[in-house]
Amino acid sequence: MPPLFDTPARYGLVSRAFHWAMAALFAAQFLSAAAHWGLARENPARELLWSYHVSLGTTLFLLVLLRGLWGLANIPRRPHDSGVAGLAAVAGHVALYALMVIVPGVRLLGAAGSTRGLNYFGIPVFPARETEIAWMQVPAEWHGELGWILALLVVGHIAMATIWHRLIRRDTVMLRMAG
Q1: Distance CA 138, CA 99 (A)
Q2: 131: alpha, beta or left, given left = phi > 0 and alpha = psi -120 to 50?
Q3: Residues of the chain with pLDDT > 70: what percent?
Q4: Region of 83 on the Ramachandran plot (φ > 0 left; ψ -120 to 50 alpha; else beta)
Q5: Cross-strand partners of 126
Q6: How far apart are CA 98 and CA 82, in angstroms?
C-alpha cells in the first residue's frame, strides 16, 4: 500500500485521493456551468446539470480547504522542482488554489447576503434575508468570470502535465500524482 504522506519522490495516498476526486468533481462542475451557459433555458439536461451546481460547488470549497491544510502539513515532504520551472510550477499552483478558494468564496458571500440564502443538500447554511445586502452581491457578480478563468488554468495544468511533462520532456512529474 502506498504511503499516506507525501515523499520527495511522489505524492502520498491522501494527496492523490484529494487530487483525483476533486478533478472529477471539477469536471462535473464545469460541465454544469457550460450546460447552463450553452443550452436553452427549457432544456432538461441544462436543468438537471444545473440542479447540483450549488451543492457541488460548496462541497468542492470544503475539499479545497481540507486539501490546502493537508498540503501545508506536507510541504516539507512534497515533491518539487528547482529553478525557473519549479518557480513556474509554484506560481501556477498558487493561482489554482487562490481561484479554487475565491470562486466559491465570492458566491458564498453573495448567498449570505441574499434574499435566497443557501441550503447545502437541504441543510440551511445561510437563511434568506428580507432585503439583500448590496456590498455582498458585488463580489459575487464576478463568480462566473472567475470560474471560467479557473477552468482555463485547469486546462493549462492538464496541458503542462500531459503535453509538456509526459510527451515533450518525458519525465516522471506526472507519475508523482498518477501513482
Answers
A1: 17
A2: beta
A3: 100
A4: left
A5: 118
A6: 22
